[in-house]
Write the structure tokens for this entry.
Amino acid sequence: MSSDGKRLYFASDMPGGYGGVDLYMCLYHDQGWSKPQNLGPKINSPGNEMFPYLHRDQTFYFASDGHGGLGGLDIFATYVEEDSALQLVNLGYPINSTADDFGVALDEHGDFGYFCSNRGGKQSKDDIYYLEIYKDKFRYGISGTVMLDKTQFEKKQAVSPLANLPVQVIDAQTNELLYAQNTDEKGYFDFLLPWNANYKLVVIREGGSRYQTNLHLPVNHPLDKNISIVFIPSLREIME
């Protein structure tokens, strides 16, 4: 169940799936729950997908024996963005083992949690394990270029890098400036930011032109992000 109570995720071997057991979602509307929607081949495999869990930061966890891994059921994570899943990440050792590992659940901040495993040997039954996530050891790559596009004012394509332009990363909750750097001669910048946080990326040109975007970096987000920022000069700049 999502934190707002409007999305219900569950596992089923109903007909029409991609494998043995698939994951499905129902949406809650004023009229009640929608019909189940299969989460599709990015998540469901010819094997079995079970034990879905959506953290409040929109990281979606589930167990699968069909996506490859260390053995048995492994725990995977992906980031849910606009009801679609991005690249899958196998959480790896020591969370996953050669046995069955499944049923992860984290606290609201993503600092610690629990999961189940029968890794104790052939005679072992399912036990509950505790895990901690050391977020300070994980970084998310944010990079990009800042360009000036004068094409609409000239007869040919005229895009050039904006060098030595300040780029800021600000805490979205406190508005505290966390990181800052200037673009290089090619207009390039890059940051390594801790996971499980919300940021604002801000670029301000001399004269007041401003670019700002929000960055939501959940735990175990699988993909780095590249941002292309393009400023259009004002008529005053062109006339000068």
Remarks:
- The mean pLDDT is 84.
